[in-house]
Amino acid sequence: MKQFLVLAACAAALAACSPKGPAAKGAGEAKFNSDVPMTEFMGHFVDPAAFMYWKNSGTMVDEKGEHDLSPTTDEGWDVLVTGATMLVEAGNVLQLPGRTRAPEADWNKYAQMLSERALIARAAAEKHDKAAVFEQGAKVYEVCVACHEQFVIQPQLKAEGRPKADPLPPIEKK
Asked: Which of 70, 90, 74 is nearest to 137 (CA)?
């Protein structure tokens, strides 16, 4: 009998803690707002994150010679870490309801690859490893190019056909 009373008391306590009524339904459930158009999400979040990483690695050659773009301060390296961290999370956000595109399996594959490769790129930046930062930045770039080919370029070509002229401006010769 004593065990029955203990069980009854526990059940009563649990019932008292349970949410009741329509206000409780849905409380605490995740709700995703994906109202920002994909082009704006890419332009205002993903692209800046990628360029935070890419602009601070490798070398640049100009009329004055070759310049190492790698950071020289802890703050500079932190810019790369921040960019890579944002790309990890961008891969997650791209898989949220309202963000995915058809075919979802391909879309999610690219989003997951972005997160995976950006996490490795982040580790390279944390180690201040110039060569690995450059190599991993290229691997992130490969994912971006492959995804854009499937989800941007090919649909645009299908809808509009091939451009009548070269879309790139001519190279100026000095």
From this structure: 70
